[in-house]
């Protein structure tokens, strides 16, 4: 089969497309999916560079979310060949066939296409755990989302709107902010041109309850300073490259709660909350209440360009790789 292969850690341009990779065989509890669409996540860029929290030994095929049809199943798997499924895996999605644990797979609801199903996995889960189980967002709460037109960011906008929260979207360009407004954000801040802290306070009437931050860098501290007393700051990632250091006195003075959330450890540490969130999220997707915004699509042969697009801050919403017809 054809697969994208990372042979040595480096930039996307070092990836190769190999037409002669062995087809996978499912073991017990596993299945093989004929991949129709895979979606790009920022961590894919970090993984191929060898800069993620966990290092995958080379060679490996990157890609962590996919949708397609079941090709073959291992012992004890109840899915059947031909069934339309989507799933998340750590690596392996940027290929014509992917091996995946049955527990990480769900059936695609009627009316949803492969690209939407692939793009729904990681970012919506990240955003929903953060909003629902970590920040405990309630209807009417002001939620500030940084990097709001990115994968995790736009998922957070969509879900916070679905939860009837009031969304303040912060991003770096008018085009990105316009999309956030179209998706239901009530207010927006161009954080490369406006003062993030004072605009958060002005626009929310000093009532920002939650900040969701998948960006870090120089944006985290002013966003935290914009929170109202007793607010919650959720750190989700560092797409800007730098891990911010926050003066603790800011936390003390306003009684702020700072929390982190990472989907792998969340599922391990809080399995019941994780399962409940997944059930609710699956229902929201099946009912068509939320659908990921796909801003760009690339063929499998151009997977490197897709990863470069994300690494260069060009992506709006999700970037999808069309693998087979
Ligand atoms: N906690 C978890 O479990 C979890 C799960 C998935 C992802 N993540 C993390 O969340 C972060 C976002 O992931 P994603 O898939 O949503 O990425 P994405 O689609 O590329 O979005 C990241 C956003 O960060 C902003 N940004 C600011 N400076 C940037 C820079 N120098 N390079 C790239 N982007 C920059 C961009 O928005 P503006 O241009 O508007 O600033 C961009 O839209 C990543 O750090 C990822 O590792 C965490």
TrEMBL record:
GO molecular function, one term: oxidoreductase activity
Residues covered by the Enoyl reductase (ER) domain: 10-321
Pfam families named among the record's database cross-references: ADH_N, ADH_zinc_N
Gene: qor
Residue stretches spanning the membrane: none
SMART domains in UniProt: PKS_ER
Protein name listed in UniProt: NADPH:quinone oxidoreductase
Record SUPFAM superfamilies: GroES-like, NAD(P)-binding Rossmann-fold domains
Domain of life: Bacteria
Coiled coil regions in record: none
InterPro entries: ADH-like_C, ADH-like_N, ER, GroES-like_sf, NAD(P)-bd_dom_sf, Zn-ADH-like_protein
Gene3D superfamilies: Medium-chain alcohol dehydrogenases, catalytic domain, NAD(P)-binding Rossmann-like Domain
Source organism (scientific name): Mycobacterium cookii
Lineage of the species this protein comes from: Bacteria, Bacillati, Actinomycetota, Actinomycetes, Mycobacteriales
